[in-house]
Amino acid sequence: MKKILSLVVAVSMIITLTACASSGNAAAEAPKETPAATEAATEAPAATEAATEAAKVADVASSDTGEEAKEKIETVNADYYCEDQPRIFMTNAYYTAPFCAPLHEQMEKSAKDYNVDLTIVDGKGDNNTQYEQIQSAIDEGYDGIIYFPADTAGTISIVKLLNDSGVPYSVIDSLVDSSVEDTITVFAGPNNITMGEVLGNAAVEKLADGGKVLMLSGSPGADPAIKRSTGFHNIVDGVDSIEIMAEQWVDGWDTATAMSIMQDMITTYGEDIDLVFCADDGIFQGAQQALEAAGIMDKVTCLSTGANSYSCEQIRNGKLYGAVLHSAKEEGKLGLEACIDVIKGKIKQGDSKWYQCSSPLVTKENVDEWDGIGW
Amino acid sequence: MKTNKIKRFFQDNYIILVVAIALIIMSIVKKNYLSLHNISNIFSQVAIFGIVASAMTISIIGGEFDLSVGSMMGMISIFFAKLVQTQSVVTAILICIAIGVVCGAINGVFVGYVHINSFITTLSTMMIFKGIALTVCNSSPISFFQESLFEFASGTGFVLPNTAWIFIITLIIAGIVLRFTKFGRAVYATGGSYEVAKMAGINVAGVKTMLFIILGFCTAVSSILLACKMNSGNALYGDTLTMTAVTGVVLGGTSLSGGKGDAFKTFWGMLFMGILFNALLKLQIDGNWQNVITGAILIAVITIDALMQRKRKQK
């Protein structure tokens, strides 16, 4: 028994050493896989131009003003009313995330307004679960499907499944993998890279004389987290006078985890911290508590994503410099409208339309205009 | 006499009765619920995690528990996604299986030979595997596309999905190993009473190590299948694996305290999980209520089973 065991372990270890060598090569190639972060460090303006260009081709453009955005959310557009009450199935990978509560609420309200029978289920952040849910929805004969992906890389199989089924669908919140991007019907959501870049530009503007930055990025592996971080790096990495001292991922976008990480960072970097990038408002809240407790809140500039009511209040009282908007209500409504457009035949598979959500930087100057649109 | 035998059979295999009742109810409520296509869907939903559940059954019978399989699955899927782009598919598979075996052996050596509690050991390695996965992939999922791998992992052969056949074969092997081999008897003995097994001359440390190696091997197979099915590796794959596999094992009647259970019954436990998942979708139950109903049904099934067992013991 012992001999067999030793043999198995020994053989396995030899093979694994080979694996390590191979993965070592792969790891060495890793930077190539994040060209956006590395190349854009030297080509930040180009990246920003690309984002602006992308914004121009959005098929439903984002709102320029808060008033316009509010009107879009509140208006019941008769074009989307469905006489025959279609059944739409939605799988949301981040069903229990705080951001998704107002998103679901808005979708359910809009579904009522448009005479749609909407079912929303928990995708549990797992591609395989979502694959099976969508397979069941197809078999069940739903008239439309709304897909809120867990991550970009895992979308290939699911998009293939949706395309093969012929069932009308829309994708919301996270973009699909670039290899299948041209085959989808419609995507409704923001551009998370652009959102990161908006914050990057705000950081560059605020730290005009240079400074030191800490990054509290979102949940490791989550697509919005990766892209917001990439966007921020796109801009800031190219500025020599700004140093990113550390970047930490906040597991589960959890406020308490963010607070612990910030406490550790304060212990390590203390007075050197000039600016903190927060990947969402919950993370900002945790960072704020740690900064307040350390008595350095007033010395540190904070940037966040979401612009929910709490963040807007903190912007007003000067604790938060700015937050890029991510409107759950707007995204929910656009996602449903996009799916109805596909059901009504206005959009076909392969059209790859983009219904863009607004993502302006909300600061003290425009907070009253945008408050209540976030989440 | 015959009635007593049937009664006894269902008392011993209570979960089969539960599965049958669930299928009957669903076939009344939903037309075509028992169609081959839907049965295939149910299997597809539980097959990949079921492979790990088969190995988890052996492990739990042997008195040990592995919390690290979820992180291991994420890590191996990342290695596979990377390797398959630079190496041949066979090499990638072999390397990933070797990684699974080594990870299992590490857990096993700490539990079996260093005598560290399996909960603590696998909690630690769970964090290590997750950390390695996130470091290797730079926190980003890795996509790849190989049509043949996708077709195999999501395809169907002889009515059931290919993954379901692998699940069934794994269960049969696990069942045979447990019932008919010396190692299987050693697993029951070690899980039943560690000290007695040791005094009886069983190499308990070796048995415990082997439990984790088997788990590592099966997790590697599952990870490869999942990566092929989703065309990607992701450090987050397998986040729900541990709980799903353990629930399936417990529903099948395997005792969490070790020494008692059967791999074949785990089949019914996993099947019941699949039926529940599928039924809640078919019935258009809202996401929040799905969690409430799933939890309530699971606790009800396990409670009734426990009460029946207690009643039998009292007799």
Tell me briefly what this model is.
The complex is a heterodimer of chains A (375) and B (315). With 375 residues, chain A is α/β, with parallel strands linked by helices.
Q: Helical percent range of chain A?
A: 40-55%
Unreliable segments of 5+ consecutive residues of chain A: 1-56
Structure class of chain A:
alpha/beta
Distance between the termini of chain A: 61 Å
Q: Looking across the biggest beta sheet of chain B, what order are the strands in?
A: 1-4
Kindly report the average pLDDT value of chain B: 90
List the domain count of chain B as a whole number: 1
Q: Numbering strands along the chain, what is their spatial order in the largest sheet of chain A?
A: 2-1-3-4-5-11
Question: How does this model look, in words?
Answer:
The complex is a heterodimer of chains A (375) and B (315). Chain A has 375 residues and is an alpha/beta fold. Chain A has two domains: 55-189 and 328-357, Response regulator (Rossmann fold, 3-Layer(aba) Sandwich), CATH 3.40.50.2300; 193-325, Response regulator (Rossmann fold), CATH 3.40.50. Helices cover 50% and strands 16% of the residues of chain A. Chain A has a six-stranded parallel β-sheet with strand order 2-1-3-4-5-11, with helices on both faces. A six-stranded mixed β-sheet of chain A has the order 7-6-8-9-10-12, sandwiched between helices. In chain A, strand 6 (211-217), helix 9 and strand 7 form a beta-alpha-beta unit. In chain A, helix 5 packs across helix 13, helix 6 packs parallel to helix 7 and helix 10 crosses helix 11 (281-294). Chain B has one domain: ABC transporter involved in vitamin B12 uptake, BtuC (Orthogonal Bundle). Chain B is 77% helix and 3% strand. In chain B, helix 3 crosses helix 9 and helix 3 (36-61) runs antiparallel to helix 11 (204-230). Chain B is globular. The chains are: A alpha/beta (375), B mainly alpha (315).
